[in-house]
Amino acid sequence: MSSILNQIEEMLERLGSIQTPEETAHRYELRRELLCSRYFNKSIEQQKWNRLMTFTVPLFAGGALVVVFTIASVTINESSQTESPIVSRSSQMITASTETFDSKIELINSDQFLSPVDEMVKFVPVHTASFEFAQ
Amino acid sequence: MAINEKEVIANAQQDPEAFGQLYDEYYKPIFGFMYSRTGNNEVAKDLTSETFFQALKNLHRFKYREGISIKSWLFAIAVSQIGNYFRQRAKVFEVTIDEAPEIIERDEFRPDVAFQIGEDVEEVRNKIVQLRRVMKQLNQKQQDIITLRFFSKMTIPDIAATMKMKEGTIKSHIHRAIKKMSVLMIQESNAIQESNESTKSAQNVYVFHSEPNRRNA
């Protein structure tokens, strides 16, 4: 029995060693079809898209950052610009009240001074200092 | 493999040239497997094409791991294609060897085979036809394993990776398949002997009956 098994194995080995027929035409035809297939077109499109995204994403992020900084700087400027007229207006008020009593006192809307910026202006110790010197 | 396989596989998903390198490396083994398994040139061409298209479509799923090479992965696709082919063929039509011997004759025997082996053409023809006939009586899994082992010259670990089985299971499948083939071959040769003997005895009976007639004549 073992000799028959060996014989069959040997026969299979010999048959397996026989070269399969060459199909050159089919080989090149299939190669061309595979390499020109839509799977590669898809991946090329995706590759282009990816390349585009790699450039545009940092650009967008940078742009957004610039916009944020600009807005922040504009708001800071605005706040600093609103501080100075209030100070001058309040100082005008004080001088007006001390110098001329005849002049008509302007009524100032107190709502304008309710913002935290106004509170800061109110605590400027300009008048108290001048009073101390006067005493 | 001469080319850097990992690098080529990584590039092959996008780069047609890299995929071309893989194709050039594995076209012949895959076609050889298909041809050995089906015994038909045209069917082998179709199945090879389908295998490579499936490979291209699913290459992004391939993960390079220890023990699983691209060769095993490609052959696994080829084996599944073969399975699909035989399942579909069983549904569509069935032609037995007795009904259409010319189909077997046309593709499974090539005269250049006898020249390559260096034996008598008739003897080689008989051996191949008998071996093919016996192989077809094995189950699909055994046929795949035997073809991968002896016709595609794959190692046991490679076959195990291809068939998603343990190496020991592959070895036992091979042993059982060869044993079954030997039993079938013995049965076949006994049947041939018996039929030869019966034809001989029938001829003797004919001679025995015909001789008195001659004497009378």
Structure description:
The complex is a heterodimer of chains A (135) and B (217). With 135 residues, chain A is mainly α. Chain A contains five helices and no strands. Chain A has helices spanning 2-16, 24-35, 38-99, 116-122, 126-134. The model of chain A has no long low-confidence stretch (mean pLDDT 73). Chain B is built from ten helices and no strands. Chain B starts with a helix and ends with a helix. Chain B folds into two domains: 1-93, Rna Polymerase Sigma Factor, Chain: A, CATH 1.10.1740.10; 95-217, Orthogonal Bundle (Arc Repressor Mutant, subunit A). Chain B has helices at residues 5-12, 16-38, 41-58, 70-92, 101-108, 111-117, 121-135, 140-151, 156-163, 167-216. In chain B, helix 2 crosses helix 4, helix 4 crosses helix 9 (156-163) and helix 6 (111-117) crosses helix 7. Chain B has 217 residues and is mostly helical. Chain B is elongated, with a radius of gyration of 23 Å. Classes of the chains: A mainly alpha (135), B mainly alpha (217). Chain A binds chain B through residues 1, 4-5, 7-9, 11-16, 18-21, 23, 26-27, 30-31, 33-37, 39-40, 43-44, 47, and chain B through 13-14, 16-17, 19-20, 23-24, 27-28, 31-32, 35-36, 41, 45, 48-49, 52-53, 56-57, 110, 113, 116-117, 127-128, 131, 146, 150-153, 178-179, 181-182, 185-186.
